[in-house]
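Re: Re: ligand-bound prediction request (bumping)

Still looking for help on this. To restate: I need the protein modeled with acetyl coenzyme *A bound, output as structure tokens. Inputs repeated here so nobody has to scroll up.
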Amino acid sequence: MEEIKFNQIGVSFKGSGSYVPDQILTNEEISQKVDTSDEWIKSRTGISERRISRVEDNVADMGYKAALTAIEMANWDIKTIDLIVLATSTPNDLFGSAPSIQAKLGASNAVAFDLTAACSGFLFALITTSQFLKAGNFKRALVVGADQLSSFVDWNDRRSCILFGDGAGALAIEATNEFDNFIGFDMRTDGERGCFLNLPSKNNEDSIIDNIQFLSGGFSPIQMNGQEVYKFAVKEVPIILDKLFKKTNYSSDKVDWLILHQANQRILDSVGDRLRIPKEKILSNLEKYGNTSAATIPLMIDEAIRNHSIKQNDIIATSGFGAGLSWGAALIKWG
Ligand code: ACO
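Reply:
Sorry for the wait, this slipped through. Here it is.
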């Protein structure tokens, strides 16, 4: 890793990428499994369909494919990448899936590690990575968000299984001494309310020898109190964004795009209303993908970059929220 010595280091956004599995599960199809309907799901969430990983897919593969397209957009030599942070709650290796992405890419000069913060994961990873760049430790970094929640959903629980899908997204970001496009951030956790959304370990008692017991590892499916998570999101997200606007001397009318974690269209609409951000500035693709956890924000950014909605120097306010409970916000300028 080449050491950089800038007086003042900022962050520049150089590329985006994404990947979703090709297997589509529609609302109609879910209603063959649980007592629900396309009409109920659409009207309560805005979701029409979601992607489900094929059995041979995993988080590292999805993350790798998303990362590769971000690198291509950034036009980077892969050997110049210094850091890869993978936000995921569903690694295919509990010891970390980021090293596998590093190996698949051949990014042999990069340090790579996982970061877990559920649906806030991408935002927390973006903030963490930006701080590494601004501190002068690294020059080029990939921030990847990838999740395969289909493996951990209770497909018999109609209150939660309708929400989630699989996917990955990535941003290529770089340190620069010319400007700083990472304008500001804030992040919060309230573990007291963590019981509203969990993917808890499920351990079975077993013994190694007669008087030495141990707990074998495993996980229970996602447990969610949807109403409490909903109330949490529509209350806390506008507060943290409003605080961030004040802290950075911005206001909601200076924002070109609001990109929220894609959990539920009603949450997006309610946050937009509270911040007085018009609907045309609130990006949404959850109709096609549902809630892909750590992947939703980069997946949305990549779609909007590639269809030319987001342009160079556009101001993006973004917020992630979810299990923990955790939430955060960042204000960035694209480019
Ligand atoms: N189909 C038909 N009926 C349903 C379904 C379904 N899929 N799910 C629930 N119902 C029923 C309930 O049983 C209930 O019936 P009842 O009144 O007879 O008891 C009724 O519909 C209303 O249920 P609510 O839970 O009040 O429905 P609500 O309007 O709150 O919508 C939803 C539920 C969509 C889950 C909503 O609460 C929500 O989106 N919450 C946020 C969840 C979220 O975003 N979680 C992820 C966070 S990110 C992360 O970290 C992973």
